[in-house]
Amino acid sequence: MSSLVAAHTRFFVIEQLRVPIGILASALFPAISMLAFVVPFAGDDPQAATQATGSLMFFGSMSSALISLSIVVSQDREQPWNTYVRTLPAGPFPRFAGRILSGFAVMVLSVIPSLLVGALFTEATATPAQLLIGLVVLIVTGIPFMLIGLFVGFTLSARATLAVSQLLFFPLAILGGLLIPPQILPGFIEVVSPFTPARGAAELLWWVTTDHAPDLVAVIALAVWTVVAAVAASWAYRRDEGRRFK
């Protein structure tokens, strides 16, 4: 079984690299945002630069997890080859696991430009241990967004998925404080922000890379979102399988 998972993972990663526009979009937008806004305005402040770098790194990985994954899953469902593969006796697990693992790989690739900008052009600081823990936290906190992406990809057509995933992504990123520092968020957004999954993920990243104390409400909300998203993704997969393979 492990060899099948590895084969599917390798296939999905190669598939993404052959058409890298999704990876480039997830990686370059936050890096360009850093150059335009973080470097000139907060680059000399180690605390602010480190926090902004973590936020925009997660912005890129979140984009990859939610938008890119939902689109490739929905496109996959419309291909005859996918229908054939899902009827094979190996079952759904190897392909499903391969999709998740390849998603993790793409998430890591998408944060490299932002990390380099933060390291080269700002006073952002992190020890090797903080950096390693931060990358682990970034990957783990990306799970609910991958599950949301799977839910969208398994329930909608490819054309609808493109619009819906973006409509979900940008409000979550803004409400979560990834583009605007939490301390300057408008009052009404600050009330809602702790209950969004992006804010919980950002709080954990800021906690492991700076001396920022995490908001407990936001962390609990992230855990709740993860459970709900897992249930929704499982339901969407079974629904799609029931409709297509009766």
Secondary structure elements and their pairing?
Elements: H1 2-18, H2 21-42, H3 46-77, H4 80-85, H5 93-121, H6 128-141, H7 143-155, H8 158-175, H9 187-192, H10 197-209, H11 216-244
Average pLDDT score: 87
Query: What low-confidence regions span 5 or more consecutive residues with pLDDT below 50?
Result: none
Helix content: over 70%
By secondary-structure content and strand pairing, the structural class works out as: mainly alpha
Shape: globular
**Annotation field: number of helices:** 11
Assembly form of the protein: single chain
What string, H for helix and E for strand, traces the elements in order? HHHHHHHHHHH
Q: Main sheet, how many strands, which sense, barrel?
A: none
The percentage of residues in β strands lies in under 5%
Please tell me about this protein's structure.
- The protein has 246 residues and is mostly helical.
- It has one domain (2-244).
- The protein has helices at residues 2-18, 21-42, 46-77, 80-85, 93-121, 128-141, 143-155, 158-175, 187-192, 197-209, 216-244.
- The radius of gyration is 18 Å and the shape is globular.
- The two termini are 25 Å apart.
- The relative contact order is 0.15.
- The mean pLDDT is 87.
- Its main location: membrane.
- It is found in: Membrane.
- It is a multi-pass membrane protein.
Output the keywords:
mainly alpha; ABC-2 type transport system permease protein; ABC_2_transport; 81% helix; 11 helices
Short description:
The protein is mainly α and 246 residues long. It contains eleven helices and no strands. It has helices at residues 2-18, 21-42, 46-77, 80-85, 93-121, 128-141, 143-155, 158-175, 187-192, 197-209, 216-244.
